[in-house]
Amino acid sequence: MQPNKTHQFCLDILQLLGWGKGKPFLNLLLALSSHRCSEVIELSESPLYKYEYTSLYKSIAGFVAQMEADLSSDKLSVNEVLRELFLSNYLEASDSDIGILQTDVSGIPKPQSKTLKDRRVIKTSNRVLSNDRGLNVGLEVSFINLYDAENNWSLPLDNSWVPLDKTASEVAVEQLKKLLATDNELRNRYRLLVNTLDSGYATGDYIGGVHDIPNLVSIIRFRSGTKVYAPPVKKRNKNHIYGNPFFLIGESGNRAYKKHPKTKLPYEVWEDSVYDFPADESLIKNASLKNGRKVRIEMKRWNKLLLRTKSGVKMSDKPFSLVGVKVYDLQSGKLVFSNPLFIAAFGEQRGELTMEIIYEYYKKRYDIEPFFRFTKQNMHLESYQALSNGCLEHWATIISWACWLLYSARNQLINRPKKWQQYKEKEKQADKVGLTMPQAYKAMQSYLLTLDLFYLLPRKSKGGKGREKGQTQVLRILYNYSKKTTGRSKNKVNSS
User: Fold this and answer.
1) 274 contacts 247 by C-beta, under 8 angstroms
2) 389-409 vs 437-448: helix axis angle to the nearest 10?
3) Cα separation, 179 vs 82, whole angstroms
4) For 301-332, how does the pLDDT look when each residue is reduced to its tens digit (9 = 90+)?
5) Which residues, at least 6 apart from 159, have a Cβ–Cβ distance to it below 8 Å?
6) CA 458/CA 451 separation, integer angstroms
7) pTM of the complete model
8) Residue of 222, 330, 351 whose CA lies nearest to 284
């Protein structure tokens, strides 16, 4: 008989936190991973939450106090101990010795939360009007997730809020160094770690910051139009640091610009495409897109390319491999996407990855986006109202534990789609191929109600004395939001 991992998960947390703090906190985790509601306080209405609604705040506050105490000590934090526990006991074994990491930042709108520091102007994906720029006021949270390719799950490993005096790239470097600093379970499980990132991390802060981390390869998408340089050449007995420059565009030609950096007038310049530079490798294969469209994929790889100095970080000693991908329609022969996809691989061991593997690994980076959407819509990553930045950061950690709870129970769940969803092929095959995170979330409550969780019941209480008459809360400091300027890591406070 297969052991019940959900019971073991609960007992492991109780052993770590203790029965006094662990029981109400586990009630919160069970409700968070199974009960859908519009506000955090409504988690107390879950049939799995056996405490009063006032205990929700006490559970979160107690956990935050424990995390703050761990940060001020030299011992491993509760989060680090639990992460090691999850990786060693609950992560499924894989035949591959390469671990795939996903790093990205997501905006959390907080336009009315004036008690929070480091609020800034952020991008939002939902536009109310067609001419709306998609901007809001809020905070940014940086996540590093581990991708389970066999089960298609994006599992959170670490999260951190981005302060005003740092960029998302700088915060990601700090997270990676902290995550990989010690000889932990993540290092022991995988021989090589591949971090997949979007174009926002093609900066000197990130590339220079992770260059010295051993056994790490970073796969980063480059924006179209980026200038790269060929390997250095020798001319007249002089060593040149850079070769000829090339632009990441489909074909060479004159490019029109609206404004010259000095004269501020429109101008044209000739740009040599990287496709005119001889590639080291080439590959053509046929494939099908998710909508069934038959396409031909053409890939080329250039090794040992270079970038110019970025943000004051020397880049001439940081060569990379570049993979260019063009997708053609099989019937018409036309490009499916107007611009080619350019992916760069940084790291000493990048040569171990073929260009096809680099392309496939980067496509898996997108799976962190559904993770963001799921946690915002179902686990209150966006709607949680906190009075401090630290409490928000630790709430994101609580959400991470709830995701691992779903992951540990996924093989014991039976898919329970809505009546209008049960005819979809994806829902019919879910029990065979494995449940996704949203599917596990919908099936979790019915499964947990069948378990005997008697050890999580609260003790009888006579009730507290409550707030005394005339007692008032201390007024909190209010902060204005800020807007980043063009200068590196400089901000100005909005006077409005």
Assistant:
1) yes
2) 80
3) 13
4) 999 999 988 778 888 889 999 999 999 999 99
5) 141, 142, 143, 144, 393, 396, 397, 400
6) 17
7) 0.88
8) 330
| DSSP 8-state assignment for residue 86 | H
Alpha carbons 346 and 342: distance in angstroms, whole number: 13
Whether 448 is in a domain gets the answer yes
With beta carbons less than 8 A apart as the criterion, state whether 114 and 433 touch: no
Q: Give the gyration radius of the chain's Cα atoms.
A: 25
Q: What angle do CA 432, 435, 438 make, to 5 degrees?
A: 155
Give the domain range for residue 184.
99-371
Q: Is residue 143 part of a domain?
A: yes
Yes or no: say if 270 and 246 are a contact pair by the CB < 8 Å rule. Answer: no
326-360 per-position pLDDT tens digit? 999 999 989 999 899 999 999 999 999 999 999 99
Measuring CA to CA, how many Å separate 476 from each of 4, 20, 116? 46, 30, 10
Statement to judge: residues 332 and 361 lie in one domain: yes
What does the pLDDT look like over 423-453, one tens digit per residue? Answer: 888 888 888 888 999 999 999 999 999 988 8
What whole-number distance in Å separates Cα of residue 379 and Cα of residue 438? 11
